[in-house]
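[Solved] Which block belongs to which protein?

Original post:
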Amino acid sequence: MSSKSFNKRTAATFFLGTAISGSWYTATSALLTGEIIPVVGAIVLAGLTPFGVNALRPGGNGSLDNHDMAQRLRAFDSHAIVNILDTSGVLKQVNDRFTELTGYTRDQLIGQPVSMLYNEQSCEIAAEMRAALKQGKTWQGETPLRCADGRVIQTQCTVMPLFNKNGDWTGSISARTDVTHANELLAERDTAETLYELRDDIWIVDAETHRFSYMNRVAMSRTGWRAEPYSERTLEDLGEKSGSHAILEVCKSLAASGKAMSQFDTEMFGSHFQVTVKLLPIGGKAGRFLIMLNDISDIINEERMKSEFISMVSHELRSPLTSIKGSMGLLLSRAAGELPSKARALLEISHRNADRLVLIINDILDLEKISTGQLEFNLEETDIAELLRETSAANSSLEQRHGVRIQVETTDTPMQVTTDPNRVIQVLTNFLSNAAKFSKPGERITIRAEENDDELRISVSDRGQGIPASEEHKVFQRFADLSNSKRAEKGGTGLGLSVCKAIVENLGGKIGFDSREGFGTTFYFTLPKKNSQVAAEEPASLLREAS
């Protein structure tokens, strides 16, 4: 047998073994769980290939005719991605399949280091491969190839060292099979298995036909379509069954507007859900809706129970606290006779702290009423100018406690508006309390009222430390605690301004502030002169929006 014939037969056997074993590994990896069967099968097939080649030889004389060999080599060449390197890792030859998949031309590849096809994560694989080849060993494994357009394809690779007649290592030949699609199938399968076991309902719906293409286990159980083919059902069918018309309307809205996602709460199947609908375009067209349903019934029930408990405790605390505060007030007014100076000082401290507790409890109760839409308003014709003077007098204790001066700036002309005077006083008292806490002794706090044709603007200004610009977004949040607030030292719960915001907005007005750190702050709110009755007509819905 000639050396040339032997080399052809050896190459044919190598390529055939690589092609068969690579195809087996690709197919079984995508379809079967685990690596044992794909790997063992690939090894067995690669080992049996030489026997198969010998069995196909005519007459069993160990030779294939050149025509038959050429056909087989063409088959290998069209299936496998083949390249040849020298000992320095420089590309010497590539086949058509290689250039077709990577997008490079031969001129761009030949003479270039093979490292141009690898990313940084593949450097360790390349070093491992080279070490095996130096030892005369064949290397097998999965390698990524970077294409001309930046894409990365995954390949199952077999690399065999090449030697000259003297047994010297001259380079290597690599045969690869593209397993990118197989890996994607495996990833999709793993994702589907994960989604199937989630506790949230997962639907995938065609954006045009609204037909279901996927439901996980929880969704099938909830809809009762476990035994029925859900692929024959649509969102319209489900709407008739569960009352989920809101989901259908949101899907139509997303498709029409081109927006990517919407999230909302709705009731269906007898439970309360938070629904997320995401539009997943395919090839520039509206492809599928990914719909996720999170059952929040338990959370809502827990929140309701917590609110009821807080409300009950607050009510129970307020009654005895009111009595304690009243008793201390009588003692301070000398109803039981003159008190020693030390006892009077201690009693004044207790009385002030009782006032603090009452304010905190009132804020908590108001917060709960806001959350449930039960905050009450009693609208009446009110002179704001007179109301400001009344508020200043009611808060005179702030002047004594903090050493500040409260000044009212308004006209003698009545400023009439239909509003809830007690709620307006509540807002102003909160503004004044905050201003006094953060003002230096001797500073002036100004209450001002201004009007135009449509509304009244009421403000409270101080010359305190101001609000840091980076924290202005927190001011009206619940439990807001600014870096310079010193809540532990100055008191407060961080609820007052949140309650004020809800009150003003439900009276039909707006609330805001202007501040400059180190120079002071002005908090203000407006009241409409014509349509403040809106708060009396629809308090519940507006309160829910404010909360």
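(Second protein starts here: sequence line, then its structure tokens.)
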Amino acid sequence: MADTPASADTPDLPGPRRTRALQPLLHDVVICVAAPAFAASSRDGQLRGARADGFYDHDRRLLHTLCLLIDGREPEPVGVQPLGPDRVRFTSVHRYPSDRTDDPTLIVERVRTAGEGESVLLRNVGTVARPLRVELTAATDLADIADVKRGLTGRAVPPTAPDVPAAALDWSSATGRARVRAVECPEAPETVAGPAGGTFTWARVVLPAGGSWRIRLAVTGRAVPAPPGHPVAASPHVPWSDPVVRGDRRLIALVRQGLADLRALRLADGSGRRAAPGDDQFIAAGCPWYLTLFGRDSLWSARMLLPLGTELARGTLWTLARRQGTVHDEFREEAPGRILHELRPAESQHGHGLLLPAHYYGSVDATPLFVSLLVDAWRWGLPAADVDGLLPYARRAMDWVVRTCDQDLNGLLRYYPRPGGLLHQSWKDSADAVRDAAGRHVEPPLALCEVQGYAYEAARGLADLLASRGAARRARELRTWAAGLRARFAEAFWIDSKEGPAARYIAIAVGRGLDPVSGPASNMGQLLGTGILDPQGCADVAAWLAAPELNSGWGLRSRSAAVPGFNPLSYHGGSVWTHDTAIAVQGLCASGRHAEAATLTDGLLDAAVHFSYRMPELYGGDARTETSPAPLAYPAACRPQGWSAASGVAVLAALLGLRPDAARRRLRLAPVHPGLLGPLAVSGLRLAGAELGVRTGRDGRTTVTGLPDGWRVETGRAAGAQPGPGAGSGTGAGAGGEHGT
């Protein structure tokens, strides 16, 4: 992510005028989203112009106040009911002191829909008629989302009311426009515009016993000027299959909720050249702060969803390919071949001296991840026309990776941030993300451990792809280069440990020269699936991931709890990240460490229960104990968030051990034994355009249905796996039918 929180150690500036604003907390905020629009409010449904309250579209706050009064009083809230990712119902009551009963007789229901507006329904369930005065106050500052995230509220923009009776209020500034209009109501309201806002008033509403009264408001607006080529709302077509999962109820619910949230987070490339608008879809990073294209996040989300088809990967790759770096630009940190990090409508201040351009390339990991997504999509059966069309972009991306490593004295993939840009340029990008075992901040230039794994995996995968296209010489060069990187990694990153579950661990990074940054962190978990570690290295990392220092019981901590500087509510210094845990589970399964994978998965699924299966970006890293019966929310986390929502599918595929190879028409299965997490049955997976089903039985037998023509199944233990009771191996070949092993 970009613009992550500054160090928790940063003090407020002295004096009342210089105290910095604080980022709004989100843990109790109700959000509904239909990218690129969303709405946020407190649990009573009122928008009061505070915190992140408002209706938003394309990073612009269209409305920050929409406050309902009945007879001059706010209704009393009694419940919130999500009606889907994009809709929510707030229920309140309006009571009368003169009534002879304590039971409420006037029920107020507000249904808010992201990108549209809201309706207000009043129901009189009493036995007498009710005369009512209904008021709705509306106001806005038309603020940029970056300013809202910094805790800033701009000056109110004065509204205007149309000269003709239109039951509407309009706002306009140099950066945005907004309108609120009553599109459905029994009678036209009195509309008054003032310097700080406007009011719709229905002064003489008479609600008979058993009767109801409804109004509907449309909230519309846009940024000024409209950014050319910026992402747009996706078409109704969803670019992945809808699987049916049977097994652990927690996993079923996590996959179902995650896919619902991902539907709401879809965006489409506004500059696409395809015939139909919305063809090239991708997943926005997260709501509310990152509802746009983020290279790293969108790539990971698409990668996690590959078992449901390659269409999302295709859209994500083409969207980023069109924005691949072509020139050297210091402010944008652009370079030929580099993949975009973040796309915004305009240049913006993000606080703490962070000034980012609209097109920003300041990430070290998006570029190798772009290559690996293309390789993985090819293995899952991405059509040859797209593979060949995207291959030149992948080659340029890999050239950037190799060139950047070759320019480093130690031959590692390292980042050199510019002043005013992101200090750290991998997924842990907050200002205090990299600390040593003594808790001291470590400044760049840094070579992060997981980034070397990404680079190694990208080089090896692209070599396979190029070899399949007849580019044998370049394939050999990349394999030789990758082998050198693997050797340099093994020499530079391992740190001996006097205490802990294994005799050594992998440094989060190496600094200037080859000085390793001490202190165990979760980053090493993302190395397991890349191939950069040998079997003993995988075993050592697995031991650390399963140990209480890093395994909180609810998921994987970003930093060991046993070292100074650990903070369970630090953005990257001790919290649990949903996607980070899921990637570690993938790597553990791929390397055959099934017991450790099952332990982390069980904790993640238990955490999901407490978040109603809408997994946040991150949550607290406190240990799970008898006196800590639930994970603690991280108060400023995005929710829903792209790669968190996709993590359920990632875990599902990891437990099944799915490893396809379209070039050889081979599907390898190495499922986690049902004795660890129970049997699984999944239909609706997609492989090379065919619908696939996989079932694991209690006896360890695996059945595959719907295999594409000419494909074969290979099942067995992954490298380094320990055999479980009833574990089997074998191969099956054929087309279309059922394959059991």
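Accepted answer:
You had them paired correctly. Confirming on the second one: The longest strand covers residues 212-223.
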